[in-house]
Queue: 4 jobs
Job 1
Amino acid sequence: MKRAVLKKKSKELILHSLTKKTKENIAIIKSIENFFIQMRGYVFKMPKPGTPVVVSLSGGADSVITTAILLEEYGLEVFPFFISRGQKAEKPELKSVKYFSKYFSKHYPNLYHKPVIMSVPNPASEIKHLLKESLIEGTGYPMRNSIIIEYGAQYAFGLGSEGVHVRNIFCSFVACDGDFGAQTSMTGLRSLMQHICIDMGDMTWQVTALPLEKEMGFYLDKDDLLRWAKSVDLPVENTRSCFGSQEKHCGVCYACKHRKISFEDARLEDKTKYLDTRASKDLP
Ligand SMILES: [Zn+2]
């Protein structure tokens, strides 16, 4: 099969789509983007092939496929990191990370590096009990994603001691992630890029979610990523979406439900092993 072309949209159309999202704030996006145009003349530029970048790799379909796109389509040198933060699904997530690390090392031996596994509870174990489900509904764990990305910035900066200059951090939120919290929105991402540039006193830092990078014309969802992955024979059934700790996907949690629907939307066979095999449309 021929490699699928990633769907692109105009910046105006993407901004228009963002106006319909309750967690997005177009005025903030425009203000931060104007800041970047003033400070460095651009908002985001895709690094040239061979540029070293840091990538947040969780073992989920979105992060695995995003990593594959950065390697295959853009020829970037990828330094992945995984955060062992106290999540229930850590073991199966790590299994996916290890599987795809082997896969990427084989297919891109000159570009892909072994992932760094960072053990940093997020939120801190001592306060996690305070952040009850009812309290964090609509926000998720406060600052969870910015903390993850900040660890990525520390890793990127630290690579300097090995003579590797890294100022690009990629993550992989998709369009619908912005429905659930400001921290996974385009607005949140732009704010994070500004924060890291200011905090580091260096305006060359770039922080983005590739599937949402408006400057690249992307406003992609999981089904778009799955279609691309299929066209390059990436074995996505080995990625991990489920929030549960069991080996197989539960088939009923939000992440599983979204995974099933995305395969349906992409009109692709879902080879994931589920404990509960009911079709997603039958789920509550
Ligand atoms: Zn599940």
Job 2
Amino acid sequence: MTGEFDGLVAIVTGGGSGIGRATATALAARGARVAVLDLAIDDLPEGSTGYRADVTDRASVSTAVGAAAAELGGIDIVVNSAGISAIGTVEANDDPEWARVLDINVTGTARVTAAALPWLRESRAAAVVNLCSVAALNGLPDRALYSASKGAVLALTFAMATDHVREGVRINCVCPGTVSTAFVERMLQNFPDPVVERAALDARQATGRMVTPEEVAGAILYLASPLSGSTTGTALDVDGGLTRLRVRPS
Ligand SMILES: NC(=O)c1ccc[n+]([C@@H]2O[C@H](COP(=O)([O-])OP(=O)(O)OC[C@H]3O[C@@H](n4cnc5c(N)ncnc54)[C@H](O)[C@@H]3O)[C@@H](O)[C@H]2O)c1
């Protein structure tokens, strides 16, 4: 079977878990050669090759991106999915936590993209997809630091898309609602009543349920596909209607 990603090489950061894992699996199933860059690479998605990397460490990123390009034959697609959560109002997180979350979610995205650009410029189908969030577009309770990080990812996506459009590199992002992954399971444990908080997270999507990692992967593949050659500098909501729909409470 042939797929639109046949012959293309994709790097997926955070590909060991959640949305990144679902994306790496889907890209491999549709013909891409996939490099997963993650802190741990002992449990990899099917069809991928692992490269240990910490997106907060420029040397680690350069080494992993260079090794992936050399071994898999260049880089055509980058999916920046490595990221962490943060809970609380603007009073909740101290300076080291602000620095840590911004370093992973924002600067990590910039580091990996910058390291991949020399190969992306050589590609016939270059695409970067960043993981933004509904938190960049909506005032969500208790997500001050996390929202700030995703607002920065949104702005970074538009800025990078502008800088590199003439080089043939498309750059977009997805804005998922709450996705049922390990990331959310860990976050729920920080609430006094995780069951009540889970029900509130389900209800926040107009569809009444959390988004699945596979649904986000589908949107990422749409943006990354060579069939989407005129789509750049966009933010695609994958949020069960959270951002735009105003349904009456049932
Ligand atoms: N789950 C959600 O509800 C949701 C919603 C909107 C956006 N997002 C975003 O999607 C992305 C993925 O989230 P997820 O739910 O799949 O999370 P996850 O926790 O399931 O997976 C995140 C992956 O990133 C890796 N990672 C973390 N820090 C890293 C670092 N310093 N270097 C390299 N890898 C690192 C982890 O090891 C893990 O494999 C994140 O950017 C997150 O902000 C998630």
Job 3
Amino acid sequence: MEYSSSNVDSNQTEAHDKVGEVVHKHWRTQFQKPIAEHNQRAYQQAIAAINKPSIIFDSGCGNGNSTLKLAAQYPDSFIIGIDKSLSRLTKQADKANQSLNNPNFILIRADLIDFWRLAANDNIALLRHFILYPNPWPKKHHLKRRWHTSPLFKTIIALGGQLEIRSNWPIYIDEFSTALTTQRFTSQKILLEIHNNQWLSDFEKKYHKSQHSLWQLTADLTVDNRNNG
Ligand SMILES: C[S@@+](CC[C@H](N)C(=O)[O-])C[C@H]1O[C@@H](n2cnc3c(N)ncnc32)[C@H](O)[C@@H]1O
């Protein structure tokens, strides 16, 4: 099969100069959006399924193939794959959730905007947090739709753990790093190498086959690790 996914089309050539300003503004204000009932129910379903001492989120998991791979990679953790898209998730979720007895993962349809806040309100501390190929919202005026410049950035930090973000748009990674720096967290950026078809998610496969450069940011969001400079 031919893969020809086009590169991210953006009118930005570098990180947006307002990242710090937007993060600070959100930091000072309370995000008041009410939690939708269906997201509350989905959250409760996920929490009730946890059968391991540590929790990993695969946020925006798409069809959930990455969640299944993470479950095999981290057998001592419980992986929660969350996506709001019914068409991406449903078939796979039903198949995967029913295929194993007492699996160490669940695929859940929910909006992260609510799911993350519910988890943070319950003081859930993640072991790891994967956000693989988030929608880049690449136009300059889309800035506030990106996770790091959304009101949810605070919540991502509150959930803690080892954060791993992957993107085929290096500016997203650079901006996320800048946003973390405003809160005194350090991060590492690397060019990802995919060997022997070992892609973690379907978007990763698509971009790799289309010969895009793939970037990864990692950050330790454990509070103790904060750089108190
Ligand atoms: C580009 S796709 C990447 C999917 C998958 N992580 C992968 O790498 O194959 C981004 C995914 O994020 C999901 N998403 C975006 N915003 C979301 C939100 N607010 N809540 C839940 N899922 C969201 C979309 O539905 C989509 O499946």
Job 4
Amino acid sequence: MAGASVDPRLPSWWLEDALAREGDPAPAAALAGDATADVAIVGGGYTGLWTALALRERSPELRITVLEAEICGHGPSGRNGGFVHGYWASLASVVAVLGEERALELAVAGERIIPGIRAWAESRREDVWLREAGMLEVSAAPAQDAGVEKGVAAAARLGRSDQAVPLTPEEVAQRVSSPVFRNGIFYPECATVHPGLLVRALRRAALDAGVTLHERTPVRGVRAGSPNELATPGGTLRAPEVVLATNAALTGWSPASRNLTNFGSYVVLTEPAPEALVEIGWTGGEAIVDGRMFLHYFRTTNDGRVLMGSGSGPIGLGGRIDDRFSRDVPTAARAEAGLRRLLPGLAGVRVERAWGGPIDVSADHLPFFRTKAGTRIHFGAGYSGHGVGPSWLGGQTLASLALGSDDEWTRLPLAARAVPRLPREPFRRVGGGLVRWAIMACEAAEEEGRRAPLAARAGAALPRLLGMELGTR
Ligand SMILES: Cc1cc2nc3c(=O)[nH]c(=O)nc-3n(C[C@H](O)[C@H](O)[C@H](O)COP(=O)(O)OP(=O)(O)OC[C@H]3O[C@@H](n4cnc5c(N)ncnc54)[C@H](O)[C@@H]3O)c2cc1C
């Protein structure tokens, strides 16, 4: 495999672009001295900011404070691919976890996400590049054909064939032409956004709504009590209700750590090339994924760029968020190799930027929202690479938990299911790393039309042999 044209680095192009449009503002003042709030939220990404806005709407008198270690949008909320969807596109695996009835309930709840984001952005006159053009899942190798059939069958079984429409190779080619694309599925329920504009618009909305925000304020210790205490370098924030919305960082925090692990995901972004997009017929704005387990995800932007992502980054150790999530050159190179293989019609288009971030993967690949037993500390994570849309549901749910409500949000399976446990470290890192290597080797071999080595086939079969519903192929 060829190397990457550019080394991965932060900030992402999205965040840089969004900050430049704001005139590169100074961060909000760090917490200096002790303070109090009714609700303290840790983490200024989508989850923390949607929670703050939902709380403000439902309970205007609350004093809400958000503490963010860096600046809002520094985390994956300012780095992601910008695919926004609920659960129709992953229905088959959601059914495997929840059963048909609860899966349907979740998928129907997820249908509220895109209209929710659209209505909010319109009410604020914010242009977050929301483009509601659906998503294609394409098979890019014979071994990926079965995944397409599975996705179509899952929706049909629940009487919702409208949410997973099968496409012949000719129908795929009408939307985007590539010599490696075979059949596919069109999922109408998907939009794309400019992730940086979205997270910064949420920050603006929170500030306009009177939420207190402290950036450059890492929380170093959380002590449960009445009130709870959050220790930061500049002072302590006390609040009776605390929401931890720190995403992958929760992997190192014991109430969540048995259910979560971190994987890296990386993207490359091309220069603007609108004419090349016209040549391959990809002008409809559809988001696209291939049928790999460590999938490629790709989309166009308003200025005619292509973003290609690869979810094949390194696995973390415990909760450590280190360079493996932002500087891993091999994963950026895999994303670029994906761009070249999947879209050879863009061969002359240059890659300008690359970056990565951690993905908080839960044991059943669904997020969970909880209150730590015996406390008023609420938390949510486990988006498993699909958090842009679901963090909207997360904000509603965490707001309900902080308000002590028993309602439509807290009754959703995201808040009301038992999440399976992962093996302890270092077995999680070692076992997960082995299976990851094996699956990647098998998927690469399949795309090249050869048989994977025996060791890779044996490693890839491990999850199935262990009776796991997910991570199997
Ligand atoms: C490369 C990449 C591509 C992705 N693509 C997609 C996609 O296309 N579609 C999709 O649905 N999902 C995608 N995701 C996942 C998605 O970005 C996340 O699920 C989502 O952004 C999670 O939002 P969040 O607010 O929970 O977390 P974050 O955005 O991580 O926000 C958490 C915040 O907490 C702060 N923080 C951490 N620790 C502390 C502390 N101790 N004190 C104070 N603050 C702290 C961090 O600085 C961060 O700003 C992608 C992720 C990556 C990395």
